[in-house]
Amino acid sequence: xxxxxxxxxxxxxxxxxxxxxxxxxxxxxxxxxxxxxxxxxxxxxxxxxxxxxxxxxxxxxxxxxxxxxxxxxxxxxxxxxxxxxxxxxxxxxxxxxxxxxxxxxxxxxxxxxxxxxxxxxxxxxxxxxxxxxxxxxxxxxxxxxxxxxxxxxxxxxxxxxxxxxxxxxxxxxxxxxxxxxxxxxxxxxxxxxxxxxxxxxxxxxxxxxxxxxxxxxxxxxxxxxxxxxxxxxxxxxxxxxxxxxxxxxxxxxxxxxxxxxxxxxxxxxxxxxxxxxxxxxxxxxxxxxxxxxxxxxxxxxxxxxxxxxxxxxxxxxxxxxxxxxxxxxxxxxxxxxxxxxxxxxxxxxxxxxxxxxxxxxxxxxxxxxxxxxxxxxxxxxxxxxxxxxxxxxxxxxxxxxxxxxxxxxxxxxxxxxxxxxxxxxxxxxxxxxxxxxxxxxxxxxxxxxxxxxxxxxxxxxxxxxxxxxxxxxxxxxxxxxxxxxxxxxxxxxxxxxxxxxxxxxxxxxxxxxxxxxxxxxxxxxxxx
Length: 528
Ligand code: PEP
Ligand code: MG
Fold this sequence. Notes:
This protein is of the alpha/beta class and about 525 residues long. It has helices at about 15-40, 45-55, 60-70, 75-95, 95-115, 140-145, 165-170, 185, 210-225, 250-255, 280-295, 330-335, 340-355, 370-380, 395-400, 400-405, 415-420, 440-455, 470-480, 490-500, 505-515, 520-525, and strands spanning about 130-135, 150-155, 175, 195, 200-205, 240-245, 260-265, 300-305, 360-365, 385-390, 410, 460, 485. The chain is built from 22 helices and 13 strands. It has an eight-stranded parallel beta barrel with strand order 6-7-8-9-10-11-12-13, surrounded by six helices. α6 (about 140-145) links the parallel β1 (about 130-135) and β2.
């Protein structure tokens, strides 16, 4: 269990401020170099996370703040620690993606202070034996560079399903259960435990039979990861295309290599998160063409800019709102700035004309038929063939029959659909237990959408994190979902699980989950 570094003392500065400033500057550069080296070694998603951390370590604003604090009489460690804390508070205040990155800053601060102290940075303890790692939370730099030969599974006390730890663990196919309240007190070094990431449970002191079953399950999982890449299908041959979620053209080669049959969600706002002005049609055409080119003849579902709440785009909605998740976001923000939406749809039509991919375009946060009609007619006016809606607001599920009269397809965003169904902020650790797409209330809404899709003869996919949970993927198919899109690294496990059930079995599991009275009960009813 990794221990955090003790915080610095309040002792006043006893040395020369300029010399101490120089010492902090050197420590920052060394930490940045170490993080960059870890980034290069890690590759993939982890590389981006660690490169961002290396940049944070070198942020000139932090060094300026450290100088001011040294000038005010703080010692070097304290000045550094507090400068990072102030920066972290500022990011937390900004909310959304910025707030999630705030916890990464704590790790950078610990590394710099360790460097100033001349002690090793806190990290994963070395072990000769394979082990299950239990921690309060893990720094991205540690998660990204874990020795996967030794680390069997990960349990953290803090962190929600969208924390970097969870995302990186998923991208490494490392079984992980995050946000286990009291984990550190409940477990001791050397204790035997089973981590069942599928069921989301940690079993302490299991009996021999459970250990044997868990070992067999692990073997099956490892075999699935190396199984040949085939098209997504159930045991009876029912096809279920398995697609990838991407944020830019950089993600495309990895997705293709892992067997993605297309893209089920291209989050275009990821390209422009830092931008202060709207991207031009030319810039966008290039970015979209780059992604579409990687999937000739394949389906690529592009989501138009999803601004607001957890994805701030200052050029679309920078008004301060008390409740941004319920505010001017998604299609509402685009409608309020229609020229930005027109430019994006124009760029998408140009990218479609320039490539061989089968382009589908959808809008986020659509609530009803009127909004669907608005978006579909604008998309068609600007030359797009297949235009649809994301199902993230519960009202669209209730009105699914009406919406599918006008939309060419629907894709369910289970992250937001769960947040709004359960009234549980997806960014908030204290309500993360409510943020569970296994909840029968969420599953019943998915069924309404699946039924409406099958009556209308139109596709209904899932592109939220729920699709990456193999057990839940089976249930979603049983509820009428026709394709699944997820982080490419999750595809192998989902493919293997789908192959173990027929459509009738998937429907039976779905029926049991729908009848359950809680998320945990639904998971259990569908998994046994
Ligand atoms: C979702 O809400 O499930 C979704 C896929 O969109 P995002 O996670 O980008 O909000
Ligand atoms: Mg969403």
